[in-house]
Amino acid sequence: MTRATARSRKKPVIYPSLEDTIGNTPLIALQRIGAESNRERGNVVLAKLEGNNPAGSVKDRPALSMIRRAEERGEIKPGDTLIEATSGNTGIALAMAAALRGYRMVLIMPEDLSIERAQTMKAFGAELILTPKSGGMECARDLADQMVAQGKGKVLDQFANPDNPRIHYETTGPELWKQTRGRITHFVSAMGTTGTITGVSRFLKEQNPEIRIIGAQPSEGSRIPGIRKWPQEYLPRIYDPKAVDELVYVSQVDAEEMCRRLAREEGIFAGISAAGACWVAQQIAAREQDATIAFIVCDRGDRYLSTGVFPA
């Protein structure tokens, strides 16, 4: 037998696809922000780097989950048109997932969101429809519903789709539990669609009901991309109020300043909602002792460059 023949009979190497790289993101300890106080109080503050996902945010997880499970149920098939209202990260993640699995993606978003987000969605082949700034995400959601009613496509509806929190129950929560060796005492997340906090809470509470789940919400008058305080009639249907033990309000000023500090002091180039969650985590750390506090770094800072949050 020749060497060439022997090589041809070996089992083929199976390499991962891009989909296989979603999740299992790093969990790292902050080194400088709040370091002295945390040492004195025996606390550690941990950042889960969801910007390491292939499309750059925590939304990669539910985007692929919603498409895959809809396919499994026979609700959609490659070639269909998908419609989704988004403030940015879910849209980018869905645009990537649609490109991977062969869908036409139509995304509806308010016109005042960062140009980097819109450009990234288009790069993945998505079509964009912009709604008036004054209408916010509520207007975008209403238009998505109208288009579906008119037969222009099918909506996955991140705000009502149980496959959104389900993927965080199946992956994000178990990762946090494993990475902290079960020592996590507090989990902090920005609240937008509420999929992350709802799914992670469900898993962590099953492991240890004493774990505290804290949601970061914008203070009155603050506009923080990715963090929302919804009017009652638009509250996401996937949200379970019992999943969240406490709401802490963060101002736009504090979130933006923390965004710059994370980059300058920790080398973490994060988005504004992630910085808001970090600010909340520091408030929790200031009142606790011997705590292991983890927060979600939802995305990367490069999609906020045009907002002026970082110095030119």
From TrEMBL:
Q: What is its EC number?
A: 2.5.1.47
Identify the pathway.
Amino-acid biosynthesis; L-cysteine biosynthesis; L-cysteine from L-serine: step 2/2
Catalytic activity as recorded in UniProt? O-acetyl-L-serine + hydrogen sulfide = L-cysteine + acetate
Every Tryptophan synthase beta chain-like PALP domain range: 19-299
Q: Where does pyridoxal 5'-phosphate bind?
A: 89, 192-196, 273
The protein's UniProt keywords, in alphabetical order, are: Amino-acid biosynthesis, Cysteine biosynthesis, Pyridoxal phosphate, Transferase
An individual GO BP term: cysteine biosynthetic process from serine
Hydrolase listed as a keyword: no
Needed co-factor(s): pyridoxal 5'-phosphate
Q: Which residues carry this modification: N6-(pyridoxal phosphate)lysine?
A: 59
Source lineage:
Bacteria, Pseudomonadati, Pseudomonadota, Betaproteobacteria, Burkholderiales
Which EC class is this protein assigned? transferase
Could you identify this protein by its name? Cysteine synthase
Q: Which NCBIfam families match?
A: cysKM (TIGR01136), cysM (TIGR01138), PRK11761.1 (NF008735)
Q: What is a single molecular function from GO for this protein? A: cysteine synthase activity
Family label: Belongs to the cysteine synthase/cystathionine beta-synthase family.
Q: Which PANTHER family match?
A: CYSTATHIONINE BETA-SYNTHASE (PTHR10314)
This protein's record includes keyword Transferase: yes
